[in-house]
Amino acid sequence: MAETPEKKPVYRVEMSGIHKHFEGVSALQDVHLGVLPGEIHAVVGENGAGKSTLIRILSGVLTADKGEVKIDGSIVRFADPKAGILAGISVIYQEFALVQHLTVAENILLDEFRSKRFVNWKDMRSKAKRHLEELGFGNIPVNARVSELSVAYQQVVEICKALIRNASVLVLDEPTAVMTNKEVEQLFTLLRDLRAKGVSIIYISHRLDEVFSISDRITVLKDGKNVTTVNTSDIDKNQLVTYMIGRDLSSFFPARESNIGEVVLRAENIRAGKAVQDISFYVREGEILGLSGLVGAGRTECVRAILGIDKLDGGQVTLNGEPIRMNSASDAYSHGIGFLPEDRKNQGVLLRRPIYQNITISCMKLLTSFGIIRKKREQPVVEKYIRELAIKTAAPSNNVESLSGGNQQKVAIAKILAANTRVLFLDEPTRGVDVGAKIEIFKIINELVAERFAVVMISSEMTEIIGMCDRAVIIREGRSVAELDKEEFTELNIIRHTMGVRGEV
């Protein structure tokens, strides 16, 4: 008896043999992607793996040099993004395409709003509210301006707008980059509901915990090529990292010998606004101190107040036993204290300025004579940090925006090191960078500590606190509530203190 041939699945999205070149550089080589109806399909890979290029081709922003795209089995060729939207493809990028000064209702029904000469505002608000209720978010006020909403609610408005356009394929690019844990859970609940209704979701993220939590299948890209597509249930995080970067998870946090010295900086009873009620900690030479806690606990606000970026209402800061008071970031630099902010693109670097200017902007006084920058002094500084931090760039004169996220972060680190700092406050130092770049940044931090720097690291990822730090201070609701030594580092222990739970959780 002849065997019944295996039935080929009918994909909602099927991209086959996709090639794309840019000025002689191959961005995609024979890439395949198949997404089933009612599936959450994660696409992962390091920066430069080809994820964004693939999605731009799917949505009509770019045209493939070779290959074909099928939607529900039919070949499509999109001349522009509008054609993609009409075919049911909707991409939601990190920077939302919302009109911030318009209301929720106006944004959701923007296409309808534009096409009508006269608008029935009552009907528009009612229709927008009905659509939000169908998504389980009827509590979002349709009269509120979008700028007044949380990031999570803005994301919901984007999704609602896409579904009104009859989107059958929803692409989310790093959707949780600036969300709290609670907001992430709200988003995931919505995505699971949409999956149950048959919507296909392509989920792009560097956050591997989220990928395992939300996705049904995973496609891995590396250097513009397919590595594998697997069921999420058939793989673990270590295997996924190995596929992405060719190294396993154990290389994330390389072993480091601790050689801890005396206390360098001490902050006592810090108060600042409503967010910081009473926080105390100290950091020693050759030590990485972790500040752990939930998003909104007051960690960043505390550090900004200590450094004089925001107002300090109370408390004392001592450096090498001497009381100090800082009134600005440049004041902190003068004391040998550097700060890497969590918002890299808006506060850490000047994206549209050259790499060399970003590196030396913190030490201009050392490089100028009579108000003129001396290139003979500047060039060695730039070359030193590009070499030592392995910043991948064609030329120091290129703008920072030309670099990958990981290399942008290295430029931000180079800037604070160039100011001859010895105490470093690093706020979410690996946020928004790929797995390979994370490992490189951890290696840089370890090398700095070996050179007797004192490092205070804020991180929302428990694995980073456990893997990198010598001690951790737990902050909850604006107060320091516990101090843990390395031997006390467990996820359970950290969760208990961050959530204020006694005993078992």
How would you describe the overall organization of this protein?
This protein has 19 helices and 22 strands. By secondary structure, the chain is of the alpha/beta class. The protein is globular.
Fold-level CATH name of the largest domain? Rossmann fold
The overall pLDDT, averaged over residues, is 88
Q: Report the structural category.
A: alpha/beta
Task: State which percent range the strand residues make up.
Answer: 15-25%
> What number of domains?
2
Proportion of residues in helical segments:
25-40%
- Number-wise, the strands total 22
**Number of helices, counting only DSSP H or I runs of 4 residues or more:** 19
**How far is the N terminus from the C terminus?**
57 Å
Strand order of the largest sheet: 6-7-8-3-9-10
Oligomeric state, counting identical vs distinct chains: single chain
Low-confidence stretches: none
Tell me about the biggest sheet?
6 strands, mixed
